[in-house]
TrEMBL record:
<dbReference type="InterPro" id="IPR003737">
    <property type="entry name" value="GlcNAc_PI_deacetylase-related"/>
</dbReference>
<keyword id="KW-0479">Metal-binding</keyword>
<dbReference type="GO" id="GO:0008270">
    <property type="term" value="F:zinc ion binding"/>
</dbReference>
<comment type="similarity">
    <text>Belongs to the MshB deacetylase family.</text>
</comment>
<dbReference type="InterPro" id="IPR017810">
    <property type="entry name" value="Mycothiol_biosynthesis_MshB"/>
</dbReference>
<dbReference type="InterPro" id="IPR024078">
    <property type="entry name" value="LmbE-like_dom_sf"/>
</dbReference>
<dbReference type="GO" id="GO:0035595">
    <property type="term" value="F:N-acetylglucosaminylinositol deacetylase activity"/>
</dbReference>
<keyword id="KW-0862">Zinc</keyword>
<comment type="function">
    <text>Catalyzes the deacetylation of 1D-myo-inositol 2-acetamido-2-deoxy-alpha-D-glucopyranoside (GlcNAc-Ins) in the mycothiol biosynthesis pathway.</text>
</comment>
<dbReference type="Pfam" id="PF02585">
    <property type="entry name" value="PIG-L"/>
</dbReference>
<protein>
    <recommendedName>
        <fullName>1D-myo-inositol 2-acetamido-2-deoxy-alpha-D-glucopyranoside deacetylase</fullName>
        <ecNumber>3.5.1.103</ecNumber>
    </recommendedName>
</protein>
<keyword id="KW-0378">Hydrolase</keyword>
<dbReference type="GO" id="GO:0010125">
    <property type="term" value="P:mycothiol biosynthetic process"/>
</dbReference>
<feature type="binding site">
    <location>
        <position position="18"/>
    </location>
    <ligand>
        <name>Zn(2+)</name>
    </ligand>
</feature>
<feature type="binding site">
    <location>
        <position position="15"/>
    </location>
    <ligand>
        <name>Zn(2+)</name>
    </ligand>
</feature>
<feature type="binding site">
    <location>
        <position position="150"/>
    </location>
    <ligand>
        <name>Zn(2+)</name>
    </ligand>
</feature>
Amino acid sequence: MTEPADRRLLLVHAHPDDESINNGATMAKYASEGAHVALVTCTLGEEGEVIPPELAHLAPDREGTLGAHRIGELTAAMKELGVTDHRFLGGPGRFHDSGMMGLATNDRPDAFWAADVDEAAALLVAVIRELRPQVLITYDPHGGYGHPDHIQAHRVAMRAAELAAEPAFRRDLGAPHTVAKVYWNRLPRSVVTERFAVLRSGALDTLPFDEAAEPGDVPGLVDDAVITAEIDGRTAASAKAAAMAAHATQVTVEGPWFALSNGKAQPLFDIEYYELARGNPGAPDGERETDLFAGVPGTVTKL
Ligand SMILES: [Zn+2]
């Protein structure tokens, strides 16, 4: 018998690659400190665009095997982050990538967007009651940038946190568990603006990308005052970059910059930012938390 890690972190994401882009530094940092870090990914990302020409045959309009390939990419990324517990909601392929908002793929019967929120949440309740995380990370209500699967991942994660704590709900799924803190992925406007200014004032010329994205393209962009926690993942920066690069069909990494399939350069953040959506803040009023477990009873902050 091994004791469960005293700090347990659960992340809920829509597609393989979202975890590394949004939380790669946070995940690697906590994993390296001995916390139990678990990832639940809701779809295989079957509808993604494919960057490398030599892998174009995987695309949904050709062989349609991108989902299986992305399981391998995610596995490689988790190895880079030192995360050993990664699962797909309901098992791999249970929910299909819904594609961008408004596309016909939104209406597939197996699309995650078409899933009943309570039914999908019950699958996550089983994971929450098994792992008993003190901290849950997911997207804000807009899914960061409006992708249906990101919005749905938010809804399912928030509902599951609620239902997991409800003693009368599905007792067959395990003993009730209250997640102490729920965080949403965010990025502060000042930091994003500053990094894009660097990109535009010369850095772009040194990169293999033709153009820069806009600050408004960055998911979860908010006024600085909305941010309640910042996790300094600079010691995990190379692990984050390697994890992102492992998602080679989706991401091209170049130093502290990267591009998605649109080829537009954007900053890679090794300090990651959050908004506490549920639970008690572990920092005094007006100060940002520097540890997501701050103030959680029974956990010890490792310095
Ligand atoms: Zn995504």
